[in-house]
Amino acid sequence: MDPHRGLLSVAARHVQGVAAVIEETSGDYTAEDLANRAELLRSIRGDGLEIGAFHSPIPVGEDARVTYVDLLPPEIQQRYFPEVPEDVPVVTPDLVLPADDLHSIAEGALDFVLASHLLEHIANPVGALVEWHRVLRTGGFLYLVLPDMRHTFDRDRVRTTLDHLVLDAQQDRAHPDRLARDAEHYREWAGIVNSLDDPGQRDFWAGHLVKIQYPIHFHCWQPEDIRDLFHEIDKIGMAHFRICGEAVMKGGYEFVFLLQKV
Q: Which of these ranges, 17-31, 165-179, 245-259, has the smallest mean pLDDT?
């Protein structure tokens, strides 16, 4: 089968599939969810960042001054995420920077960092956590929201191991083993999320996603994986965070961690 044939239909299926999952998992927060979120957000005040807000910025109190950071301006992001309706308001970033390279922000400059449904899109999440740790002052807070793979389109994917994450951090992004792992993430996404059973179409579509740097979910987790991750990066001296609180939201679709730099 010619893998080029039907590329547009594959692309349409990709958009429709992601849009369907967004619809499935984007119900309103319950009263309990809102109470849990408000409790965790009480610590968010002073000067900080939200990275990757796009169309769903985190609601913070009046005593929190947020600078918005994103990799791309919204008009380009909307090309990557056509499933987000054009009439939905989006955040224009104050700073255009990679989430894992906040080079224009001084060490220890911030009271908080907010990141919702972002870490799973980063090929080297430990590197991002180390960078967010760098820009936080001692005692500053990281508010982290992540999808639970058991309740999203990641449900049939391989759960990311702790060893995998540490290896991603230890190897340069150009390291052959790291490139091979990242390529396998794209193939897994094309096969499972985009439902491509034909190896030719799967590999061709995965190659296209690599070429355009489509922000797939490189990694997928359950809450205990994130607890283990923070314990491990503390133990090996990469970043020191204390888990201050956590909550499960939207019937398990997502979970939240509040962490403090120590």
A: 17-31
- Alpha-carbon distance of 227 to 5, in angstroms, equals 44
Cα(100)–Cα(69) distance, integer angstroms: 11
Own/partner pairs, 202-205, CB within 8 angstroms, 24+ separation: 203/3, 204/3, 204/4, 204/7, 205/3, 205/7, 205/10, 205/14
Q: What was the pLDDT predicted at 110?
A: 99
Q: Starting from the edge strand earliest in sequence, which strands make up the sheet with 46-51, in order?
A: 95-96, 64-70, 46-51, 110-116, 136-147, 254-261, 241-249
- Note whether residue 1 is domain-resident: no
* Threshold 0.85, pTM exceeds: yes
Q: What domain range includes position 181?
A: 7-261
Strand pairing partners for 16? none
Tell me the CATH number at 130. 3.40.50.150
Domain count, the chain: 1
